[in-house]
Amino acid sequence: MGFKVCIVGATGAVGVEFMQVLERRNFPVDELLLLASKRSAGTTLMFKGKPIVVKELQKDSFQGQDLALFSAGSGISKEYRQACVEAGCLMVDNSSAFRMEDGVPLVVPEINPAEAAKALQKNGGKGVIANPNCTTIIALMALAPLHREAGIKRLVAATYQAASGAGHAAMVELEDSTRAFLDGKSYTPKVLPHPYAFNLFPHNSPMTDNGYCEEEIKLSKESNKILGEKGLRITGTCVRVPVLRTHAEALNVEFQRPLSVERAYELLGKTVGVTVLEDRAKNRWAMPIDVAGHDDVYVGRIRRDLSQDNTLDIWVVGDQLLKGAALNAVQCAEVALLGALAPNANR
Ligand code: A2P
């Protein structure tokens, strides 16, 4: 038995990945409905070798649908949540709209899979699963197994975030502005607030009163919710770098109990969804170009922080559009509706 699946934001950077992930993981799709704004209604996209015409999102789009994968921004998620849920359609939402709402599970299926089924209305849930922030998912894939073993006390994160997190238009801006730079032409940024070619800048999410941007606050709050904790001390500096689709993160993690470098490698070496990639002798670690298009999160460069007890430094790299967004969302649907995860593909 298959499902009627719709994608809200089908023409976007994550929307296109939703289709590929559903196809690649053989998710049982009986019918796929592609939804976007009026602007791209009528566009044709391919799914399993067949063309599907994109339709304009409407309040009644969810009638008869089993699963809706949303990635069209928080505003659209808020506007259409009620219509989706009232139609009895499970909403897996890639935006930040409901992540911190009580009763809405925030799920990374390798970490807290049981939460996903709690979203189902037949289980008394609200009909919504929130897909966490991309940076948070990627960090926690490496940190959750270590937290279970030794208990995180404090995390200091520095992130190197790709254009894809700001959507398809930001990826185009990176390419166009780089080309303009090389051609000696001027380029006025249209999507991001600063010149992007051969540059980097603190994350462009809204600034808050305490000097953290929202992305940094998400990392802290969402990590606590996913790990079922309240008091993990987390601070981060999130930076947008001129990379197309893969985030890298330097994590400095202090633990409550001793954890050796060897044991950390052992734990991560057997974690589903994590690949250790490194060649210490050659000073070669996972890079965005290694990881783009791969399902797993890649880790390495684990070393003891010489400045502080019980503290490790870890390098983590993950495809923002896959594990950071579309893959994690489809995996949420897998555990909620099928009860198990399909295997990952690392191409
Ligand atoms: P459209 O192509 O019609 O603008 P990204 O995250 O890459 O920026 O993509 C955003 C996605 O959200 C796109 O598919 C976009 O569709 C969709 N979207 C934006 N605004 C709306 C809207 N008002 N109704 C439905 N979909 C929307």
Bound molecules: adenosine-2'-5'-diphosphate
Number of discrete domains: 2
CATH level-four homologous superfamily name of the largest domain: Dihydrodipicolinate Reductase, domain 2
Note the total helix count.
9
Mean pLDDT: 97
Which fold does the CATH topology of the largest domain refer to? Dihydrodipicolinate Reductase, domain 2
Oligomerization: single chain
Question: Can you put this structure into words, describing what you see?
Answer:
The protein is α/β, with parallel strands linked by helices. The chain folds into two domains: 3-131 and 325-338, NAD(P)-binding Rossmann-like Domain (Rossmann fold, 3-Layer(aba) Sandwich); 135-320, 2-Layer Sandwich (Dihydrodipicolinate Reductase, domain 2). 30% of the residues lie in helices and 26% in strands. The protein contains nine helices and 17 strands. The protein has helices spanning 13-24, 74-86, 114-117, 134-150, 168-182, 214-227, 261-269, 288-291, 322-338, and strands spanning 3-8, 29-36, 44-47, 50-53, 55-56, 67-70, 90-93, 128-130, 152-161, 201-202, 233-240, 246-255, 274-276, 278-279, 284-285, 297-304, 311-319. It has a seven-stranded mixed sheet. Helix 4 (134-150) crosses helix 6. The model has no long low-confidence stretch (mean pLDDT 97). It binds adenosine-2'-5'-diphosphate. The site of adenosine-2'-5'-diphosphate has 17 residues, from helix 1 and helix 5.
